[in-house]
Design goal:
Layout (H helix, E strand, L loop, with lengths): L17 E4 L12 E8 L3 E6 L3 E5 H4 L12 E4 L3 E14 L3 E8 L1 H8 L5 E11 L3 H7 L3 E4 L13 H8 L3 H8 L8
Parallel strand pairs: 5-8
Antiparallel strand pairs: 1-2, 1-9, 2-3, 3-8, 4-5, 6-7, 6-8
Helix pairs in contact: 4-5
Length: 188
């Protein structure tokens, strides 16, 4: 008797992984996105931040108050399409024991404190990426995303659109080809 060895969706643990947009995902919001999945529960859905979509603005462009002076030159990234009217700060660092760590939605004061810690990077985000229960699992079954484990050099890369190709190249030879392919192969 044959049994299905595919685990049910509720057993998939995705928190802490990176989602790389499949090259076929060409929507402007998620095109070549690298998303840190900060939270994932089969019953509640998932939450993440796009790490590599700078908005072209600095915190000082959006928050001119003196209390934000130490963060004025911090680039603002587009974290995703949900609550795109809210600006939040997050800190990321690498732990030899635990891997990539993060502290999300920290206050401006906490962001300043994190920025002073060696090995920490602080980012400002407008919005976030979110999925309802089962939505992300469905997108994974339809191969809209490529899963990757964060590597210790993730924080050393510039977090712009090139990050997608850098990470993709390191997954496998096939992924290297995908990373180096033109956006529209028909124009080649």
């Amino acid at each position: 008797m044959a049994t299905d060895s595919t685990p049910p969706d509720h057993s998939i643990q995705l928190q802490g992984q990176l989602l790389l947009a499949d090259p076929s995902l060409r929507s402007s919001t998620f095109r070549r996105s690298v998303i840190l999945l900060a939270d994932h529960h089969a019953e509640r859905g998932a939450f993440g931040l796009i790490l590599n979509h700078p908005s072209g603005k600095m915190v000082g462009d959006l928050l001119p108050g003196d209390q934000f002076a130490p963060l004025r030159k911090l680039p603002v990234h587009l974290g995703g399409p949900v609550q795109s009217d809210q600006l939040t700060f997050s800190s990321f660092w690498w732990s030899k024991k635990l891997g990539l760590r993060w502290s999300l939605r920290v206050s401006a004061e906490e962001a300043c404190a994190h920025a002073k810690k060696p090995g920490h990077i602080v980012r400002a985000f407008i919005g976030y990426s979110g999925w309802t229960a089962g939505q992300l699992e469905s997108e994974l079954r339809h191969q809209s995303w490529i899963l990757a484990q964060p590597q210790n050099h993730l924080l050393e890369f510039t977090h712009d659109l090139n990050l997608w190709a850098e990470i993709l190249r390191g997954i496998s030879p096939l992924h290297r080809i995908l990373a180096e392919a033109p956006d529209d192969p028909s124009l080649n």
